[in-house]
Every structure is written in structure tokens, then in C-alpha cells.
Design a protein that fits this description.
The complex is a heterodimer. By secondary structure, chain A is of the alpha/beta class. Helices cover 39% and strands 27% of the residues of chain A. Chain A is elongated and about 80 Å long. By secondary structure, chain B is an all-alpha fold. Chain B has 2 domains: 238 residues, no CATH class; 47 residues, no CATH class. Chain B has 13 helices and no strands. In chain B, helix 2 crosses helix 8 and helix 8 runs antiparallel to helix 13. The longest helix of chain B has 30 residues. Classes of the chains: A alpha/beta, B mainly alpha. Chains A and B meet through helix 2 and helix 3 of A and helix 1, helix 6 and helix 7 of B.
């Protein structure tokens, strides 16, 4: 984990000379990493991804993928990346197998090679038995897997995933992520993804960048981000109405104690160690604990802290957008 | 690590894959294809026959009123001669107006151009669909040349139009279509050359118009705006010199008129005016070259934004 696969320096995109969609962002993604890009709708996620996959030209700044400049050496970049788009781009009227071959043709992969790879990829995403069925008969999860297979046909070094699990149910989402992880290990790729599902980002990503109003507000591992909030929170009530703050402050890992009405808010670096210690210490003093709860900060809190916007709202919005999109995805007769 | 892609590369890779993708949509849905043929056939069958003066005022539909025959005391030979005279009027009107005694033949050639116009308009629509469905973005992230993306649309629309035009001509034969005396098998090649040029020009135009659009309403509006004026302000259904002055002015610059007149010379005229024919090829050729250049330059610029 050393080499920087993606290097972004001061990347900026201004639309129509006035709308700043991405504002001087800089970051790098290391070899073999899963890098998550989070942010509210309109924060600049898609614009960033579109610049990195060379379909939008940056207004300012530069970025390189495997050393090739996205603006001046876009063909080299295109050769080495794969894309799993948000939409279902596979053609309804063609079979899964034909769709993969079409993707292969776009990379100029000779038929002898692409046929072999297509069979192999269909097996990996477990679509072999449906390979000669038209895509219009596929379920959402199957379509998503087909998109994954298409994105991998050129054996990319970097795979871009734009909301890969949008609009899928929980089982399908979990299954999709298992495929993605398998594929990543199989091909030793670096992944760059955007998602609206914070739990997913938490459990999958090696590092996360949160972007808002076109700027990266925070970047780090999920643990680092959660730790930056100041640790776990223990809420506690006791029977007697006396101040025990001083007693608790002496305990291991405790960072802060606040008395709010009848209960205490305790911030601890390691909540699960502190909590039994508190109970122990209070019992020695003869106090009776009536209530105790332990909350670990989640990415939700991190997200809220940095964007001031609840991700749940954002996720709902985008789910609606996803629905609308899927409704019109079934192409009219023409 | 994965091995590097040992892909054979040339500038045009992917062009057949993308063209074939469009064509597959079309030939894999024969029902839709038949539907697209119904309209031109109805036009031909109804309007072509309704306006066919030769049959309206023909010897079979025209008999001298019996009272007239008795009061003038005409002999059967005289009746026959008169009837023949009146029947000939229809044909001679047709001949002087349309240059042929068969209106259906005149109109069938117009219908071919009409079909070309329609099919190429749909190519503009498919660009918008590809954008909305995310397919365009996906293709743009691959090493396919930007020009190839446009060219594949142009070619698929052109191939479709040429095929549909052939079908229409074949259907027109049982409806009464007759080739002119100047027709040779070589004329068919000439017709395809005309169709190729006009389709390449028109589809480049419609793709350039729609390349920036994300709304499906845009190509619809463009189609509604241009469809009828382009068709009627051309020689598709009626000769230009019978039109009012202002319409003549439009029809005389409409590339469809040149295509249609050229194709009529090749298909239904009894003599071919070669200097006029080369003028018509030149006009349509320049139209195609200019619009394709504009279309590709615009699309290129937009796709590289």
C-alpha cells in the first residue's frame, strides 16, 4: 500500500463560467484501496467522477491515473479504467453475453479474447445460466451484476463505481458487495466509489472523503473519521440526585463528563471498557445505577457533523431519483 | 497483476459494434419495423390513388351521357373516339404536371425521401436516449473515438433508411409503380447514392441538434417543427413549378427537392437530363459534406467538454 494510483491536485470544474461544481480538491488513492466518496446530492461527486473518467474536462487543476493525465492523455486513462455507472446501461434487446461483447468491442478487444473473458466474467457474477436471455428479463440485481461484468471486460487497474447499489434491496446490496469484493481480490484492482449508504461505506471503504459544496471537508479511514468526533457516548442516570462528575472523571479513557438534568453524558475513548468501570465505581460508593446506554458514533454522525445535513434525507432524495430513472429505463419501442 | 491489454487498435475500432447495436434494436423487433412501414404505405395507397387523375378521368371511369349521345346522333365509332379523347385528358394533365402518367410512381419517389427524413430524425432521438440512459457516458469513458460515436449513429440511420426505401419501392410495384424508359439496373445504384448522401447529411444535422439535449421533448419538437415544412416544401408530392411563389423559394433550396428530382430522373423519367442530374448530385453532395462536417465538429466539441 504505497503507490498512488490516482493523484488529484486542485481539481476544479466551473460550469457556464459561474457554477462552481468542484472547487480545488486534492487527494490521492493508493494501490489496492477502496476509496469512498460521500456527499449530499449536488455536492460534486458525479462531476468529480466524470472528470476522472475523462468525460468532462477540468476547468483548473490536474489529475493523473496511473501517471497518465486525465486531460492530455485521456486515451491512456480510458484504457486502464473501468466504469460501473449508476444507470443500467445494458441494452434490453440484447442478451447478457452480447452486451458484454459490445463493451469489449468498445475497447477494441479482439473477439477471440473477449469471448473467453465474457464467459469467465459471467461465471464470476453468476449469470452463466442467463447469458443467452435478453436483458429485459433480468432483475435489478442481475442487471447490476451485468454492469459489473461489463466494467471489468478490459481488466481495468482502477474501477469506478457510481452508486453501485442504488435502488437495490438489502439482500441484493449485500450480494452485490460480495461480488465487488471477490472481483477486487481476483484482479487486484483499486476501487473508487460513490455511495449514499453510509453503513456500506463504513464496512467496505479503506478510506473515505466527504465532499460538500464542491470541497472535500474531511478525508480519512472510517475509524479516524469516527474518532474525530471525540469517542463513544455513555448516558447514565442514578437514583440519588447528587453530583458524581468528579468520581467518573478519574476513570480510565473518560474524556468529558456533562450533567444534563438527571442524567450524565460521558465521552469516552473506549466506551465498552469505561461503562463497567463506572458501574463498579458507583456501586463501591453505594449509588444505584438506574439507566445506562452506550452509543458508538457512526458515519451518520460524522456525515452530519461535516455537512450539516442528514444523510437519510439525501439518501431518500436519491432513491426517488433512482426510481424515476428506472421507470423510464425501459426504453420505448424505438 | 493483470496483464496489459494487448488490444489491436485503430482509430475506427468500435464503429461496427456501435452501428450494429443500433441496427440490432431495429431488426430484432420486426413488429416495430412493420409499423414504421404502415404509414408510408397508407400514404401511397390512399393519396397516391386518390390523386391519380389517370384513373379518375380514365376510359373506364368516363362514359358519355346517354342523352348526349342520342341528341347528337353519334355513331359508336364517334362515341369511342370522344371517350378516348376525354380519357386521354387525365393522362395528358398528369404527364404535363408530374412528368409521368402514373401519379403513384411520382409519389413513391417522394415517399422514399420522406422515409429517409423520418428515419434520420429518429437518429437524433436515439442520441438523447443514450444520454438519458447513461449509455453515452459509459461509451465516453472507453477509448472509442468521439467521431466514431457520431459516425455510428449516422451510418445506422443511413443503412436503415436505405433498406426501408427499398421496401417501399417494392411495395409500390403492386400498387401501380412503373419505371420510366430511361431506367436501367444502374439507376438503382444511382438511387442509393442519392439516399446515402441525403441520409448522411440529415442525420448529422439531427444528431448535432440533439447532442446537448437531455430532454426527449427536444427531438420531438424539432421533428414537429421540421417534418411537414421540409416534406411539403419539396417536390415530394407536387411539382415545384405549380407551387405559390413563396413556397417555390423554399422548395428550391430544400435539399430534399434535389434528391427527389434526381431520383425521379433515374427511376420514372423517360429521358435523363445528365447536366441536371450532375447538378442534383453536386447539390446533395455538398449539403451532406457541409452538414456532416458541422455535425461532427459540433459533436466532437461537445463530447470533449
Amino acid at each position: 500500500m504505497s503507490e498512488d494510483i490516482i493523484k488529484v491536485e486542485g481539481l476544479t470544474k466551473i460550469f457556464n463560467h459561474s457554477l462552481v461544481a468542484v472547487n480545488h480538491i486534492s487527494f490521492s488513492v493508493k494501490q489496492g484501496e477502496i476509496f469512498g466518496f460521500l456527499g449530499p446530492n449536488g455536492a460534486g461527486k458525479t462531476t468529480t467522477i466524470n472528470m476522472l473518467i475523462t468525460i468532462l474536462k477540468p476547468t483548473e487543476g490536474r489529475a493523473t491515473i496511473l501517471g497518465s493525465d486525465i486531460a492530455n492523455q485521456s486515451n491512456e486513462v480510458r484504457e486502464s479504467i473501468g466504469l460501473v455507472p449508476q444507470e443500467y446501461t445494458a441494452d434490453d434487446d440484447l442478451t447478457g453475453y452480447e452486451n458484454i461483447l459490445l463493451c469489449a468491442d468498445l475497447y477494441g478487444i479482439p473477439r477471440s479474447t473477449s469471448k473467453k473473458r465474457a464467459i469467465e466474467l459471467l461465471q464470476l457474477v453468476e449469470l452463466t445460466e442467463f447469458k443467452d436471455k435478453k436483458v429485459q428479463t433480468y432483475s435489478g440485481g442481475m442487471r447490476r451484476r451485468l454492469e459489473l461484468a461489463c466494467g471489468l471486460i478490459n481488466r481495468p487497474k482502477v474501477l469506478f463505481l457510481d452508486e453501485p447499489t442504488l435502488g437495490l434491496d438489502v439482500q441484493t446490496r449485500t450480494a452485490t458487495w460480495n461480488y465487488i469484493k471477490t472481483l477486487k481480490n481476483e484482479y487486484g484492482m483499486t476501487l473508487f466509489m460513490t455511495t449514499h449508504y453510509l453503513e456500506e461505506a463504513d464496512s467496505l471503504c479503506d478510506r473515505i472523503a466527504i465532499i460538500d459544496h464542491g470541497k472535500i471537508v474531511v478525508i480519512g479511514t472510517p475509524t479516524e473519521l469516527k474518532d474525530s468526533l471525540g469517542g463513544d457516548i455513555i448516558t447514565l442516570s442514578i437514583k440519588k440526585d447528587i453530583d458524581i462528575s468528579e468520581l467518573i472523571k478519574k476513570l480510565q479513557h473518560v474524556k468529558e463528563v456533562k450533567k444534563e438534568g438527571g442524567s450524565y453524558m460521558i465521552k469516552s475513548e473506549v466506551g465498552e471498557i469505561t461503562a463497567p468501570l463506572i458501574i463498579e465505581a458507583l456501586r463501591k460508593e453505594g449509588h444505584v445505577v438506574t439507566k445506562l446506554s452506550l452509543t458508538k458514533p457512526t458515519l451518520n454522525e460524522v456525515y452530519l457533523q461535516y455537512t450539516g445535513k442528514s444523510m437519510r434525507d439525501a439518501a431518500d432524495e436519491s432513491r426517488e431519483a433512482g426510481m424515476a430513472q428506472r421507470m423510464m429505463i425501459r426504453r420505448a419501442g424505438h | 497483476m493483470t496483464k496489459t491489454n494487448g488490444n489491436s487498435k485503430n482509430k475506427l475500432h468500435g464503429i461496427w459494434a456501435l452501428t450494429n447495436r443500433e441496427l440490432k434494436k431495429w431488426y430484432k423487433a420486426p413488429a416495430v419495423f412493420i409499423l414504421t412501414l404502415i404509414q408510408p404505405v397508407i400514404w401511397l395507397g390512399l393519396l397516391g390513388n386518390a390523386l391519380n387523375l389517370g384513373s379518375l378521368v380514365g376510359s373506364s371511369s368516363f362514359t358519355l351521357p346517354q342523352p348526349l349521345v342520342t341528341s347528337l346522333q353519334l355513331t359508336p365509332t364517334q362515341v369511342g373516339g370522344l371517350q378516348g379523347f376525354f380519357a386521354g385528358i387525365g393522362d395528358s394533365i398528369l404527364q404535363s404536371t408530374f412528368g409521368t402518367t402514373s401519379y403513384i410512381s411520382f409519389m413513391a419517389v417522394g415517399m422514399i425521401a420522406f422515409t429517409a427524413l423520418f428515419t434520420t430524425m429518429f437518429s437524433g432521438m436515439s442520441v438523447v436516449w443514450d444520454r438519458r440512459l447513461g449509455f453515452l457516458n459509459k461509451v465516453l469513458s472507453t477509448p472509442v473515438s468521439r467521431g466514431v460515436i457520431i459516425l455510428s449513429k449516422v451510418f445506422s440511420a443511413t443503412l436503415r433508411s436505405m433498406f426501408q426505401a427499398s421496401i417501399i419501392l417494392i411495395i409500390a410495384i403492386p400498387l401501380g409503380f412503373k419505371v420510366g424508359a430511361a431506367f436501367t439496373p444502374l439507376s438503382i445504384l444511382g438511387i442509393y447514392a442519392f439516399l446515402f448522401l441525403i441520409c448522411v447529411g440529415l442525420s448529422s444535422l439531427f444528431i448535432a441538434i440533439n447532442i446537448r439535449s437531455t430532454r426527449i421533448e427536444t427531438p420531438m419538437a424539432v421533428m414537429n417543427l421540421l417534418n411537414l415544412p421540409l416534406t411539403f416544401a419539396s417536390s415530394a408530392f407536387f411539382p415545384i413549378d405549380r407551387m405559390p411563389q413563396w413556397l417555390q423559394a423554399v422548395a428550391n433550396v430544400n435539399p430534399l427537392s434535389y434528391t427527389i428530382n434526381g431520383m425521379r430522373q433515374l427511376l420514372i423519367d423517360d429521358t435523363i437530363n445528365y447536366s441536371a442530374l450532375s447538378m442534383q448530385y453536386a447539390y446533395v453532395g455538398i449539403f451532406a459534406a457541409v452538414l456532416t462536417t458541422i455535425g461532427i465538429v459540433l459533436s466532437w466539441r461537445y463530447l470533449n467538454k
